[in-house]
Amino acid sequence: MIPAAVVGVGQTHHKTRRLDVSFGGLVREAVFRALDDAEMTMDDVDAVVLGKAPDLFEGVMKPELYLSDALGAVGKPMFRVHTAGSVGGTTAIVAASHVQAGKHKSVLAVAFEKQSEGNAQFALGSGRGASLGAGGAFAPFIRAYIHRSGAPEDIGWKVAVKDRRNALKNPYAHLKIEDISIEKVKNSPMMWEPIRFLESCPSSDGACAVVITDEEGAQGRTPAWILGTSSRSEPPSFPGRDPVRPQACLQCAQDVYGQVGITRPREQLDMAELYVPFSWHEPMWLEAHFIAEEGEGWRMVDDGSTELGGSFPVNCSGGVLSSNPIGASGLLRFAEAANQVRGAAGEHQVEGARTALAMAYGANSQYFSMWVVGNSLQPFA
Amino acid sequence: MAPSTDIAVVGWAQTEMARRTELSETQLLLRAITDALEPLGLTSADVDFTCLGSCDYITGQAFSFVGNLDAIGAWPPKRDSHVEMDGAWALYEAWLRLQEGDIEIAVVTGSGRSSTGDPALIYPMEMDPYFLAPIGADPLTFAALQARAVIAAGITDERSMAEVAVRSRGKGTVDDLLAGDYVRQPLRRHDVPPITDGAAAMVLATGDRARRLVERPAYITGFDHRTECHNPSFRRLDDSPSTRLAATAAGLGRAPVEVAELQAAFTHEELLLRSVLGLGDDVVVNASGGALKANPIMATGLCRIGHAADHIFKGGSRALAHSTSGPCLQQNLICILEGRS
Asked: Are B109 and B82 in contact (CB under 8 A)?
């Protein structure tokens, strides 16, 4: 397999409504930032991979067709991925595959969502009425997690405060809640027991793009080497499923760690960008990625380990809790992990980060995609 | 760049192609996948990677592919992906994935039940949302514009188009068809595709594994796809540069092909593609009847590759398959399959 690296990262300023730009304008904002970061132009890009969540979010079917001009894809391969909420991650993985398979030298991965164009809750209910929304779907899993682990109720509030504080350091983040506090989260309206309003992700317009290239292309640029990628899916529902600790997540993590040679993720990884749309997903995912022992993930939140500056920082960008253009949210995690090991994360940089994990998940906790990136091809040598 | 690992189609299956079925997309896929795996002595447990191709707007439901995980038997969980594209592109993703060298068997699918919606209402939604979708022009309208351009360029005429229809469907006479009314001038009813529900599944295997599974694997020796600018008014409709680019990159010119399966939903598209690809009269085109006979949207392209693979399985040496997406052949894919003695 041919080594591949991220050499450029770009994203939009995420907002509830980006009425100032068209779909094309939105993706171009992210694309040009990524190309500028890579010191490349569209001419250097051999293929484009576009990811986004359901087309029913915006009411435009297969929008990559219309976007081919805006993305500079004319005359090139243009590929469209859709794996529910994990799609941003899968987009990065498929783009990396184009390079790793030796098919192309430099590939642009782009993901976007312009949620203000439609009604996300309607589409999340598969376009049928009476949608529970994502919070309604995930609240039972969270209650089960709390029941099993015996975690105290303030864990969710702590995650919500931490991620919003991190977002204050991220110029692109959607939510900027200067006076965020435990009190404020605790007193926000209850949405889906036990998830409160400020423990929930926003609905954003935004896009993200990364440039992936081979070893030669990485010369003279700042690479985040893609050390391992993996995806796993499991069925919607059957009695053997455990959505609190999904088998697909466990296997995906084991697979990607195996590729990189990670046996002690908490020590060997320097940070993680995990897809946390509701605060309680942070401790759940810490456990399902073997970063914490089963039932112990909440303790890492409780003792501040996952804060920026803690022993295992999580979602230093502010995470999905602070910016959530759904189709792009996964790629934002993958891009943030890349920027951390490139030393390009600005104010929310984890000092000396050499390896980082990024994860995205989708549907009813069924689709998982992950990558581990590093500042060298042999980070543990 | 030639792939370093041999990757071959070792089997495929399609469901019955019907004007309307009461089976769900998941049920259709379960049949197609089972029918593709069984003759090879494989089960879903042998499959290392799956990639499904389908479209929410065809199914009429967001996240419509999620339920299709039940058809691939994703337990234990599978390495899996989904493209909002024809199954031919799902094959492309699997072909890339297998080249990474760590896995051996992949299943790709395409599925669609277009009978549940009205194409004239649904397809305009894939157009530029600001300048084209509001016009509400349906696929027939755009196809008719292209047919006019292709006729004006002298590439075809209405009689040749009717000949394509007669050959593809194996019924009627050219004179009878030409006596019919226009649906959109110059297109008559016989020039346009049927509405079809159906699914297809294909099994891919690498190198030695492929040779152990079947006597004569259909090796993928060239594979490429390209897009053009979206708005048909900014394109030359009597040409298909993206098809030509993809064919060149896939190495079509390296040796002659005996058969070609082209995803030409409209009669003039077949004639335009033949001309762009430089296919001579000695090349058998769409012996399957093509998209004019059965057009299960999102599986139509994968079926073309399946029929081309059948030619290799039966002893043929080189076959071309083509798939397309978007208005007036905006995006085109070329897959070359070869047999080895």
From this structure: no
Query: Per residue in A144-200, pLDDT tens?
Result: 999 999 999 999 999 999 999 999 999 999 999 999 999 999 999 999 999 999 999
Q: Is the pTM of this model over 0.95?
A: yes
Task: Look up the ipTM and state it.
Answer: 0.97
Amino acid letter at A263? T
Q: In sequence order, which residues have a C-beta less than 8 Å from that of residue B302 and are 6 or more positions away?
A: B12, B53, B86, B87, B88, B90, B91, B108, B109, B110, B200, B202, B323
Quote the tokens at residue A175: 């939510």
| Domain boundaries, given as residue ranges, for chain B | 7-117+194-213, 119-191, 221-338
**Domain spanning B221-338: which superfamily?**
Thiolase/Chalcone synthase (3.40.47.10)
pLDDT value of position A130: 56
- pLDDT, tens digit, for every residue of B197-255? 999 999 999 999 999 999 999 999 999 999 999 999 999 999 999 999 999 999 999 99
Task: Give the A window 286-325 contacts with B, CB below 8 Å.
Answer: none
Q: How many angstroms separate the CA atoms of B34 and B30, rounded?
A: 6
B84, A84: Cβ pair inside 8 Å? no
**Sign for the pseudo-dihedral over CA of B121, B150, B321, B251:** negative
Stated as kind and residue range, the H or E segment containing A226 is strand A224-233
Contacts of A234 in chain B (CB under 8 A): 69, 74-78
Residues of B in contact with A69 (CB under 8 A): 229-231
Residue B294 CB neighbours (<10 A): 22
Nearest CA-CA distance, residue A214 and chain B, Å? 14
Hey, of B51, B227, B297, B323, which one would you mutate to test binding to chain A, going by the most A CBs within 10 A of its CB?
B227
Residue with tokens 């243009």: A78
Using a CB-CB distance cutoff of 8 angstroms, which residues of chain B are in contact with residue A57? 62
Query: Which chain A residues in 211-250 lie under 8 Å from chain B, judged by CB atoms?
Result: 230-236, 238, 240, 246-248
The mean pLDDT of A107-127, rounded to a whole number, is: 86
CATH architecture of A4-119+202-218: 3-Layer(aba) Sandwich (3.40)
The minimal CB distance from B100 to the residues A97, A126, A363 is found for A97
In this predicted structure, what is the pLDDT of residue A126?
62
Name the CATH code of domain B7-117+194-213 (choices 1.50.10.10, 3.40.47.10, 1.10.3720.10, 3.90.550.10): 3.40.47.10
**Phi/psi of residue B109, each to 5°?**
-140, 160
Distance CA A188, CA A161 (A): 12
pLDDT band at A271 (very low <50, low <70, confident <90, very high): very high
